[in-house]
Specification:
The protein is mainly α. Strand 5, helix 12 and strand 6 form a beta-alpha-beta unit. Keywords: Signal.
């Protein structure tokens, strides 16, 4: 009822007093002014804000994007410092001749200055697209994913600078490809949002649906370090004919022996056993045999599992979309067993209460004391407590 909210704001801000039935509340009288901050939820075409006429009479300061507002941690092992240390060498074209270590006696000790980090992020993330960036969250996604992979590069003996031929540019290829994959992770949601905003102007539902980016419209090229064999890199994709040459060069460089016989994997024709082995390389750290339920693994599902896992390891929330019964829960549950983490699912619906959600989270916190746990909120779009879940998932806050 926006009209009630509008009247409430008018009474509070203009008269300093509001009342309902026998309850009365007023702002305290004091020589020190009382500052009131109001956050209006974002809605389609700002419908909610426009339904509150009183806000049009308030003084406002329109905030614009400024990279200088990005705060840089001084902790050398923080994701932002890990990322910027590598970007710094990459920018100076020294990445092929110098290693960056974080966990040895030779680990770097001096963090990069804040201004240098801001300039590196602006150069390698924004790439003239700052107009589309509306949240520091996009930068956080880029940094978290890239830092997770760069730490693995730092620990890799195979890709250490001293173990590679000086004339080669393999390390530059690795960092360059990881930067592009990380940007895609962070900006894919921006592209979807742009398509959704454009679709709002179309009356035809089919036209609106057609503008939203579909799974089949992207090749989903991923480059990442394996978990079971941490000194090696893998690449996943839907169509091998669309894989860039620099990725082929990178993968070929890992071949020991006759490289002329190497060819790019075709996940569309790969056997179920080969796909399973690939998933183990990606997801598992141990080599002990697991008792896993039967699952029809395909190249398509392998890429989806990789996307989920890479996001989870970079502490990026994962949203899985699909028709009811298409196998979302079984896919995530199987991946959790493969990764050997605990898994709990909560089926949400319009009648579920806040108390049930809170109890579910508290139980999960107790389980988390024993090891990593994944939580899956099924049918989240039908729940009446989106605000609570948004704070939990996006802001990491629990009421």
């Amino acid at each position: 009822h926006p009209q009630d909210v509008n009247m409430f704001l008018f009474e509070l801000l203009t008269l300093g007093i509001v009342s309902t039935n026998v309850d009365i509340a007023c702002l305290p009288s004091s020589e020190t002014p009382t500052h009131i901050f109001i956050e209006v939820a974002s809605s389609a075409e700002q419908h909610f804000l426009n339904s509150l006429p009183v806000t049009g009479y308030l003084l406002f300061n329109h905030l614009t994007w400024n990279i200088k507002n990005l705060r840089i941690s001084r902790e050398i092992s923080s994701p932002i410092q890990v990322t910027c240390q590598y970007l710094n060498l990459y920018d100076r074209k020294e990445i092929d001749t110098r290693d960056i270590l974080f966990q040895t006696e030779k680990a770097i000790k001096d963090p990069l200055p804040e201004e240098r980090c801001q300039n590196l992020i602006a150069k390698y993330f924004f790439d003239k697209s700052s107009d589309d960036i509306s949240s520091f969250r996009f930068i956080e996604v880029f940094i978290n994913f890239l830092a997770d992979q760069l730490v693995r590069l730092s620990s890799s003996q195979f890709f250490a600078a001293e173990n590679l031929v000086k004339e080669t540019n393999i390390r530059s290829l690795i960092v360059g490809n990881l930067i592009e994959v990380s940007k895609d992770f962070a900006t894919r949601s921006i592209k979807s949002k742009v398509a959704q905003l454009e679709s709002m102007n179309d009356d035809d539902g089919n036209v609106r649906f057609g503008k939203i980016i579909q799974w089949d419209d992207s090749n989903h090229i991923l480059v990442f370090f394996n978990s079971q064999t941490p000194d090696s890199i893998s690449a996943l994709y839907r169509d091998r004919t669309k894989v860039h040459d620099n990725i082929k060069i990178l993968l070929k460089s890992q071949v020991i022996g006759d490289q002329t016989k190497w060819e790019l994997d075709d996940y569309n024709t790969m056997s179920a056993y080969a796909l399973f082995t690939k998933l183990e390389y990606l997801a598992r750290r141990s080599t002990e045999k697991l008792e896993l339920p039967e699952y029809a693994l395909s190249g398509d599902n392998l890429i989806k599992m990789a996307l989920i896992l890479l996001r989870a390891r970079a502490h990026i929330p994962v949203i899985v979309c699909g028709e009811a019964g298409c196998g979302k829960t079984s896919l995530i549950a199987y991946l959790a067993k493969m990764v050997e983490v605990q898994f709990q699912a909560l089926n949400l619906h319009a009648g579920i209460s806040k108390e049930i959600i809170m109890m579910f989270i508290k139980d999960a916190l107790k389980l988390a004391e024993k090891g990593e746990i994944w939580l899956f909120f099924d049918e989240i779009n039908t729940c009446n407590h989106i605000g609570l879940l948004a704070d939990l998932i996006s802001h990491r806050m629990l009421d």
